[in-house]
Amino acid sequence: MTPARRTWRAFRANGLGMGSAIVILIMIAIAIAAPLLAQFPSGYGIDILMPPSPQHPFGTDDLGRDVLAQVIWGTRISMIIGFAASVLAIIIGVALGVLAAYARRLDGAISMLVDVCLALPVLPLMILVAALVGPSVTTLVLVIALFSWPEVTRIVRSQALSVTRLPYVDAARTIGGSHIWIMTRHLLPAVAPIIVVSVVLTASRAVLSEAGLSFLGLGDPESWSWGKILFNAQRSGALTVAWWCTLFPSLAILLLVVSSTLVSIAYNDARNPKTREN
After folding, report:
1. Cα separation, 230 vs 248, whole angstroms
2. Nearest to 40 by CA among 78, 79, 66
3. CB of 30 within 8 A of CB of 45?
4. What does the pLDDT read at residue 186?
5. 62 partner at 20 to 30 Å CA-CA among 33, 237, 239, 274?
6. What's the whole-number mean pLDDT along residues 50-65?
7. pLDDT of 67 over the 80 cut
8. What's the gap between Cα 13 and its chain centre?
């Protein structure tokens, strides 16, 4: 049995991991099928601040808009921002991490840059940059990715360092393999499992960052996200009189973050031979 099949069999045996993966897949399906599931929430309605009912399962907000439709459309934007910011941060982090592990002359400079970035107050800087550039989906993706890659770089570098000392990497240098060929054919496959976990965790953190920025009024005003739902509830004063306006988007954020964490833990356990045997 191949290592990939052994990992999949161990992951499938983990109930929490499989359940969390199914939850994430359902959220992705909701994001894709949002136009088919609910009408885009816009304009005004006559049922203002109505509690959950058969007609409006998640209730309505201060303008009579259906909260369920907001959560469904918010799933699309939140997932897009989380995925796009995660991919961009992973590309930057993996490239710098592999380069730092292979090119030892650059290791000190890259490690110092990572330490400086990790020491910075991330949330205030994200707020400052987003406020200066202007609110939009593109701005949120770039700002979140800009402050998310250092953690990926540190993890990838530590994993790649152990690979650069292995005999087959020295053999690749001896036979005249180019630096790009060695990094792409030997180092990248070795850190691929770390990349998978980093994508999931970075995406969940990106969704949290987007929700925080949107809650502060720095989100895209022309689209819905879970953070914008919370921002509208806070701005209208519905936080104190309409609990449903904040409960359901908050549960969606919590569900995504917890599911992503459990999936990453289950995947790590599945690919670890010692844990897999137990």
Report:
1. 10
2. 66
3. no
4. 77
5. 33
6. 89
7. yes
8. 25
Q: How many residues does the chain have?
A: 278
The Cα–Cα gap between 102 and 165 comes to 10
DSSP 185: I
- What's the rounded mean pLDDT across residues 243-251? 91
Q: Is 167 exposed, middle or buried (0-12, 13-18, 19+ CB in 10 A)?
A: exposed
Q: Taking the CA atoms of 142, 147, 148 and 151 in sequence, report the sign of the dihedral they define.
A: positive
Domains of the chain: 3-277 (1.10.3720.10)
**pLDDT score for 249:** 93
Straight-line distance from the first to the last Cα atom of the chain, in angstroms, rounded to the nearest whole number: 18
Claim: this prediction has a pTM higher than 0.90: no
Q: Give me the chain's average pLDDT, please.
A: 85
Phi and psi at residue 147, to the nearest 5°: -105, 10
Measured in whole angstroms, the distance separating CA 135 from the mean position of its chain's CA atoms is: 19
pLDDT digits (tens, 9 = 90+) for 25-37: 999 999 999 999 9
Backbone angles phi, psi at 66, to 5 degrees: -70, 125
Question: Residue 240, Cβ neighbours under 10 Å: how many?
Answer: 9
d(CA 22, CA 101): 35
Residue type, 211: A
